[in-house]
Amino acid sequence: MREIKLFSFLRTLFSFFLLKMSQRALFMKKINLKTLLLTLKLFVITLLLNSPSLLIAKESSRSQSRIIKRTNDEVSKTSITYDNLDKIKKTTPETFKTGVFISNIHDIKHADQEFKAIFWIWFLHSNKFENPLELFEIKNSKSFHFFNDDHIPLSDGRILSIAKVEATISKNWQLSNYPFDADKLEIRIEVSGYGGDTIQYIPDCEDSVLDTENLKESLSGWYVEKFDLHHVFKTYPTNFGNPEASYDNFSRVIPTIYVKREWFPEFIKYFTILYLSIFFTSMAIIVRRKNTESKVNLIAISIASIIVSRFIVSATLPPSTGISLYSTIEYYTFLFIVVTTFVMLAPDFFDRLSFMLTKKFREIYLASSLCIYLVINIVFISIAYYEYIHVFDDIKLVCYDDFKKPILTDEIKNIIKKKTH
């Protein structure tokens, strides 16, 4: 919301200036074809700036973001970890040793706030429950299904229930430092229909692992920093209509992949357009005094560049609740164009500003404004990059110190290979 208000203010200010310039062009000069064309161009620029299409993508996806936004903070407020087991009913639950083998993460869609995952899941359990595969759900999924399921009796009397899962996961992406962004991909697997006093998941840290070779291909544009598997108890503030029941705690195991974006391609893709608009605006300063038409053309190209950039970013990224890195650079780019346009065109219509026509003034203005713009870029980008480098430094993993260390035991590894082929 703050982004929209700030951009609207700058846009309105620039539009007012252009309209005034158009009036002076019509009433202070002879009305000829050249004057009419110049006035028309100024009006076209004004209409472009006030085009509602700049905000269409943000407005259309705002309602969707309210529906599917379920942040990690909400989970932590209602979760109970092993440190708080004194709050759990002191009964002996049936334990399911639960593990995952994540082979594929793909179709990352920021605008739709989702990603898709393919993974194997298994439960090592006694024969008290015949099919644990029917007793779990993925709480942060939009949809999921499992297949290739099997139940394998082991020599110690326990049963290994295993299946392959395809899921579409809801994800509230953290994009304030885009493209220097890092995030964690969680799959929240929870017992369905039984409280924590009846069934409890135990993370299989020894066997749970990532298929790093496949993930390098499917997670194009990202790389994996860390992997973890941890357990929490989820408490819901309702007894689900049963007046004889108290609030219950449901066992949940959460595979978490910590990822970072490969920032350089994205930076070149989006920020280059902004820097091109700065280049065209700077070229307009160098144009000779009487060549007003060329100046307006260069300004129009600069504004068109920003509009194209806004279209691309709005179609790619979801709406932001604050001012992102990209929006900050975009605002200062637009401000540079506004001030430079005033410096270029105002002396042609206002005699009191004739001092701006001197070559020395324009050289000083161009050098100082470009330096200020460069410093602003360096400061904001450096801060974002520093946070990008150190974002996971304080993360304490429950299961692993290094996601590459765990190796699937031969028994489970052979089962997965057999079912895959």
The N- to C-terminal Cα distance equals 51 Å
What is the N-to-C succession of helices and strands?
HHHHEEEEEEEEEEHEEHHHHH
Mean pLDDT: 77
Percentage of β-strand residues: 15-25%
Q: Identify the quaternary structure here.
A: single chain
Question: Poorly predicted ranges (pLDDT <50, ≥5 residues)?
Answer: 52-90
**Rg, nearest Å:** 29 Å
Main sheet summary: 6 strands, antiparallel
Number of strands: 12
Contiguous helical run count: 10
Class of secondary structure makeup: alpha+beta
Q: Please bin the fraction of helical residues.
A: 40-55%
Rough outline: elongated
Structure explained in plain terms:
The chain has 421 residues and is an alpha+beta fold. It contains ten helices and twelve strands. It has helices at 2-27, 33-49, 56-68, 72-77, 212-218, 263-286, 292-316, 325-349, 359-390, 410-420; strands at 79-80, 94-109, 114-125, 136-138, 141-153, 159-170, 182-186, 189-191, 199-203, 209-210, 222-235, 249-261. The longest helix has 32 residues, at 359-390. Residues 52-90 have low confidence and may be disordered.
